[in-house]
Specification:
Blueprint lengths: L1 H18 L6 E2 L11 H7 L13 H12 L19 E6 L4 E5 L4 E6 L18 E8 L5 H5 L3 H23 L2 E2 L7 H8 L5 E10 L3
Antiparallel strand pairs: 1-4, 2-3, 2-5, 3-4, 5-7, 6-7
Helix pairs in contact: 2-5, 3-5
């Protein structure tokens, strides 16, 4: 029986590794709280940019970016962006040239879910494939309380929460000289299928990030 259990565990690990394309998790760095420009300078330079170079982002930049977006900034686990009723229902999927990851702020890690470059379907726009990162904001309605479900406000609340996160990304990009733009025009059925989303998960926005061209 023990031998069969070991075999099963080994096969399960192989299947999971295959589904994720044998990618390794990416450990993120602690945020550099002294980097970047002053808030008023970042607000002055905040803008949407739709042209990206192919210059890659460093692990330090990615770590700071994701922490700024929706990282933990208090001992009680609360985040850099507000969340309705503290549901924290927004998950950030990160599309790269190497594959797709999910940001886990509690562990400061990017967990692999797909070994495929899907940046060209992050939005229907041609430029999405050029940005080194494509952030995809996915609302998991199963994390939201019955009040949101009963009052049919889950989409409104989730959209607001994703907007708060995207604005954090905008300000970080302005502070670091990066380019970004929020995208609402997405082929959601295709992208949802590619990400393997469940029925209770819904793509809200996407947001490519990179250096300006």
């Amino acid at each position: 029986m023990r031998k069969l259990s070991i075999i099963f565990i080994t096969l399960f690990a192989v299947v999971c590794s295959t589904l994720a394309g044998a990618q390794e998790p990416i450990n993120l760095l602690e945020p550099d709280l002294k980097s970047g420009k002053l808030l008023m300078e970042a607000l002055n330079e905040r803008k949407s940019t739709r042209s990206f170079s192919d210059k890659q982002l460093t692990n330090e930049i990615i770590s700071n970016l994701l922490w700024a977006a929706f990282g933990i900034n208090r001992e009680d686990g609360k985040r850099t962006a507000p969340s309705a009723m503290d549901f924290r229902e927004i998950d950030i999927y990160v599309a790269t040239q190497e594959g797709v990851y999910v940001y886990e702020p509690e562990n400061k890690v990017l967990m692999p879910i797909l070994n495929e470059d899907i940046r060209e379907i992050v939005g229907i726009q041609e430029y999405t494939k050029d940005a080194p990162l494509g952030l995809i904001y996915v609302a998991d309605y199963s994390k939201m309380g019955s009040q949101a479900i009963e009052e049919n406000t889950k989409e409104i609340w989730a959209s607001a929460d994703a907007a708060f996160i995207s604005q954090n990304v905008y300000l970080f990009c302005a502070s670091e000289g990066l380019a970004t733009v929020v995208i609402g025009m997405i082929d959601k059925p295709t992208l949802s299928a590619k990400l393997g989303l469940k029925d209770e998960q819904n793509i809200i926005f996407s947001q490519p990030v990179g250096y300006p061209k």
